[in-house]
Structure prediction request, 528 residues.
Amino acid sequence: MITNLIFFNLTSIFQQDFLYILPEIYFGFLLLLFILWISWLKYIGSIVRNSIIQKFIMILVFYLISIFLINDFNIVKSIFNSFFLIDYYSIIFKVCIVTSTILILIFTKNRNKSTYLDNDWVGYIILMSLANFFMVLLVSVFDTLSFYVVLEGLSLCLYGIAGLFIRHLRKGSEVAMKYFAMGLLATGFFLFGIYLLYAETQETSFFKLKQFFLEPQEKLTLLTYIAIVCILFGFFFKLAAVPCHIWAADVYEGVPMPVTAFFSITVKLAIFSIFIRMLFFTFLDLFYFWQLILIIISVLSMLYGFLNAAGTDSLKRLLAYGSINQVGYIFMGLSCGTFEGVQSALIYLFIYSIMLIILFGLLLNTQITAFNGTISTITDLGCLYKNNPLYAWAYFSIFLSMGGIPPFAGFLGKYYLFLAAIHAELYILAFIGLLISAASMFIYLKIIKVAIFEVISSPKLVYVNMSSKLSIFIINIGLVYIACWVPLTWIMEVLNIIGFLDSNLVWTSFIFDIVNQAVYALIMPLIF
Prediction:
C-alpha cells in the first residue's frame, strides 16, 4: 500500500511534466517498435535497405509533426525537478537535428538502389535511431546528472556505429581503440568535473549552479575552476577541437560517407546546443575565466585544421580537418561573450551545417561508374565539368561558400563572426581568423581547379541520381540567395567600418543589384 501511495504521489507531481515530453515519449515508443521490427526482419533474412530507411524517415517525420502540434514555442518550462528544460532554443535544435537526419537518410537511400542491407547496415540503423533519441533529449537537459547520463548514452551509440565499419580497415582495431580510449578519457573529464562541482556547491541543477556562480570571485575555490576546465575539455573531445582532435580524421575516413555526414552534422548540432547553453547560462558569470581558454582553442583549431587540410587528397580527411577548422571559427564567436557573438556563432553553425548537408548529398549521389563507387579523393573530381556541368557548378558554389566568398552564404556567416569579434575588441583573434580564412581559399580553389580544368588520362563517367537532383539544387540556390539579398543596413555597417561616405551607398546598391541579377541569370539556365 505504501508503494502504491508513493507511485500515486509521483505520478500526480509529474503529471503535467509528462505532457511536455509527449513527443519524446511517442518518439521513443515508435523507435522501440522499429528496432523490434528490424530484429525480426533480420532474423528471417530478406531485407532491402531502402525499406528500412523509408520507415525510419516516416518515424522522424511523425516526430517533427508532434513537436509542432504539442509544443508551445512561447513557453519556457522546467520539468522533472529541473532535469529538463523545454523552451524555444531546445525545440529549434530538435527540429534541426531531426531534419538533418532525414536529409542524410534520403541521400543514403538514393545512393545505390541495388545494394542490400547487410549486418553492418542493420546495426548502423538501429544505433542511429537510438542516437537520435539521445540527441533530442540532450538539447533539453538542465541538470548535470541528466546531462551526463544522456551524453554517455549518445556516446555509446557513436562508439558502436564507428566500430561496425572501422573494424574492416587494415588498422581498424587501432583506430577503434583510439576513439574508444579518447572517449573514456572525455567521460572521465566530465564525471570528475561534475563531481567537483557537486562537492563545492551541493547542487546539480544548471539554474542552482548559476545562482552559486553569482557569488563574488573571492568565494570561489580552485576546485571550482578545475571542474570547469574538466567539463570544457570533455566538450573539446566531443567537438574534435584541438588538442582533443586525434580521433577525428581516422574515424571520419574509416566509416562510410553517410556515417561521416551523421557524425559531422547531426552529432555536432546536438553537442553544440548543450555546450552553448552551459557556457552562456550556467557559466556565464565566469566568462572572465573561460574566455581565454576558448580564444586559445579557437586559434589552435583554425590553424591546425587549415594546415592539415592543405596537405591531404582524401575528401573525408579534408572534411574532418575542415570540421576542426570550423569549430575554431564558432569558438571565435562564443569567446566574444556577447549576445552578438552567440548569435553569430549560431548563424555560422546553421549555415555550415546546410553547406555540409548539400556537399554530402552531392558526394553520395555522384558515382564513378568505372569503379562503381562514390567519390573519395579530390583527384576523382577530375573531368567533372566535362561530364556534368550542372554538378560541377554545384561543387563550385559549395566550396566557394565554405571558403567565405561573396555572394555565398558562407561569406555571411564569417562576416557576422568577424564583426562580433571586432565589436568585442578581440582584434588579434579577428585578424588571425581572417588570415586563415583567406589562406584556406587555396584548398577550395585547388578542388575547383581539379573539377573544372584538369583532364585526367582516363575520364571516369559520372552517374547523377536524378531523384535527388531537384532537392540538392533548391538548397544550393539558397546558399547564394541567403547572402545575395543582404539588406542595405548591413552594407552601410561595412562601409562605416572601412570609412566610406554615405554618398557611396547609391553606387554600392546599384553594383550589388547588378551582381544579384548576374547570379540569377547564371543559375536559372542551369536549373531549367
